[in-house]
Amino acid sequence: MNEFHQTFTKQPFPKENTPNKSKTEMKFQSSEPYPPINCSIKNSMYARIMLDNMAGNRSEMSAISLYTYNQLITDEHKEIADIFHKISIVEMHHLHMFGTLAKQLGADPRLWTSRHNRAVYWSPGFNQYPKELPHLIQHSLQEERFAVEKYTKQLNVIKDETIINNLKRIILDEELHVKILENCLNTYQ
Hints:
By secondary structure, this protein is mainly alpha-helical. It contains six helices and two strands, in the order ααααββαα.
């Protein structure tokens, strides 16, 4: 386990998650430990899937950039801006995990994906940028639900236990983000 992964997994978070809780009390990642990232095989198909999770159209990089934008434009709502910031930190960890897996599987872990057997670099143009608070939260919620669905589908395709365990663990975080954003939407609608 590398230093980043080890440090990140030690962060304690209390139990309850509502937008009315202070940022120090809200939990942004599952309490389950992250599994080791130690693929010993090379598999170009799995590597492409991990690269797409990193930097595809709807990816961890897209989530990070969207949450950064959301944080900046919601600064008059400090509580929601802090939520976007904290979720983005967890998404950064997911980006790192997928990049590590892609590298171990034999890929160059750049911010790119593959379309029609061609490398396509990640672009901020992949994101939509709603500005009204309820729509902004709804869009973020939709993207988190999509991530859960995408990673769950990958569980049916991938047969490597290391990748499966990491996907399952990341899904727990994404499901938690869904709950947080549902609560936010109920609060700010």
